């Protein structure tokens, strides 16, 4: 690297987005998906990691703010699940309804994907997303 390039690299601001920078967009996206999926408040809270009621309603009202890494990870999986369903099912209503339908796949054991996702474990969100990604090929 020449001296000029090294100087630019040293003085250029290092922008690394913080969790707070992603919070607003993540929350707005989550609440749109929750509306499509017709999720009750209790289901929304569980999927977000069971934040206190006051925190949840503040997020819902303001749709901005810093989120912890766990909450951002959860929203990321949920958005991936939503997107995979939109790809797998050409009819948006069918894609949204899939979540609540009983599923014979072994990882669901005859229960719906939503039931699995509502266990409270972030790993279950990952498993559902992984399953849908595998179905997409």
From TrEMBL:
Classification via Pfam families: Xre-like-HTH, Xre_MbcA_ParS_C
Domain annotation Antitoxin Xre-like helix-turn-helix: ranges: 24-80
InterPro entries in alphabetical order: Xre-like_HTH, Xre/MbcA/ParS-like_toxin-bd
Annotated protein name in UniProt: DUF2384 domain-containing protein
Occurrences of domain Antitoxin Xre/MbcA/ParS-like toxin-binding (ranges): 84-137
């Amino acid at each position: 690297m020449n001296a000029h390039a090294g100087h630019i690299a040293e003085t250029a601001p290092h922008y690394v987005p913080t969790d707070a920078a992603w919070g607003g967009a993540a929350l707005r996206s989550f609440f749109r998906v929750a509306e499509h999926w017709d999720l009750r408040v209790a289901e929304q809270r569980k999927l977000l990691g069971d934040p206190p009621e006051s925190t949840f309603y503040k997020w819902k009202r303001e749709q901005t703010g810093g989120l912890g890494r766990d909450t951002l990870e959860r929203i990321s999986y949920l958005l991936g699940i939503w997107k995979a369903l939109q790809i797998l099912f050409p009819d948006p209503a069918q894609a949204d309804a899939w979540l609540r339908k009983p599923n014979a796949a072994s990882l669901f054991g005859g229960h719906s994907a939503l039931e699995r996702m509502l266990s409270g474990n972030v790993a279950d969100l990952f498993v559902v997303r992984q399953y849908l990604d595998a179905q997409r090929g």
